[in-house]
Amino acid sequence: MSKNHGPHIKNDEQYEALRDKGMSKTKAARIANTADSGEKGGQSPPYEEWTKDELYDQAQKVGIEGRSKMDKKALIKALRSD
């Protein structure tokens, strides 16, 4: 059973799983709070195959700040790190 992390975490189970994998609290919270958190689906192509607009939209979903000034390479780096 997953712990309740309060109203600021939308998907407690996913948050805990990400923290167990070693992700920071901030990154785990951003991912667990996306609208489609916890949904299963097919494999996504690597970020290098995404368009800059798709990367920007994903960065917006997970709350990466400064994304409007980033190029494609910087967006990929930000999405893969904290």
Automatic annotation (TrEMBL):
Pfam families: DUF7218
InterPro entries in UniProt: DUF7218
Segments for region (Disordered): 1-53
Residue ranges, compositional bias (Basic and acidic residues): 9-23
Domain of life: Bacteria
Name the UniProt record assigns to this protein: Rho termination factor
Species of the source: Echinicola strongylocentroti
